[in-house]
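Q: How would the C-alpha cells look for this protein?
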Amino acid sequence: MAKTLLSVVFFALVAPLVLSDAAALRSNVTYNSNTTRPRALQEDCSVNAALLNDLINLALPTINDAIQQYAPDPLELNLAGTINAGFLDILGCSLSTDLTYNFGGISGLSGIFIETLEVIPGTESISAGCSTTLWSGAFNVVIASLSSLSLNDLGANWIANACGLAISPGVGGNIVTNNPYIGGTIDLAGEVCGAALNINFAQVIDSLTISYSSVEASLDNIPPFLGDVVTTATRELSILLQNELINQVEPAIRPVIEEQLVSAQFFSPTRVIPIQMGFLRNGMIQGMQSLVNETASFLGFGGSD
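A: Here is the predicted structure in C-alpha cell form.
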C-alpha cells in the first residue's frame, strides 16, 4: 500500500513538469521565414534537430557572403575540341562541316549561395553543457544562383570543305545554363560557446549534383550555307557543357563550400544564447524523462513511455 501511494505521489509531482516543459519547448521552436523555399522539416523531427537548423541558419548570410567572394569567377575550363556537324549538299557539291571550339571560362559562380541547409532528422548529435555545447549531423544542402551560368567565349570556327575548297569562318555565341541548382549532403560539426557559433568540420559526402531548367547554346555570324547544321552543333555544345558542369564546376566549388563553412563564425547573445538554453533545457527534459522511467520501473510500474 505504501509503495503504491509513493508512486502516485511521485508521478503527480513530476510528470506534469516534464510534459509542460516539453510542450513549452516545442512551442518556442521558430522557423526562418526569409528563405526562398519552405523548410522541409519532417513533422516528427526532434526538438534538437529543429533547434540545430535554426542555429545553422543564423550563420548562413555570413557563409554566403564568403562563398560569393571566393567562388572562382570566371572558372577557366581550357577545353578544346571539334564537333562534327554533318554534311550538306550544295549544288551537287558535298560539304563537310566541323565546328572547332576552345572554351574560355564559365561566369556566374560568384552568384551562388546556400539556399537551404537542414539536418537529416536522426543524424543530429547534441552534447549540451552550461558553457559549451558540441553538435554534429548530416545536412541536406541546396545551393542556388542569383544568375545563370554562362560561357561567353566559345572561341569557335566552322571548318568546312566543299569540293576541295576550304572555308573557315569565325563564329560567335554563348552557352547559358538557366536556373542552376546544386545539391548534396554534407557532414558538419561544431560548437556553441556562450553566444558564439563555430563550425569546426565540413565535408561533402560523395559529390554535389548539378541540375538546371535548361542549357541553351546560341551561335552568331553563321554563314547562310551552314544554317541547316546549326541545330546539330548547338545541341552538341549544350550536351558538352552539361558534362563539364559535372567534371569541372563541381570539383571547383566543393572546396569553396567546405572551407567557407568551416571559416564561418557567428556571435549574437540575443540569438545564440536562447538556442543554447533550448539545448540545455531539452537535455534536462530528456534526463527527467529517463529518471521517471527508471523510477517507475524500480517501483514496479514498468519502464515504457
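The longest strand covers residues 75-90.

Residues 230-263 form the longest helix (34 residues).

Upvote if useful.
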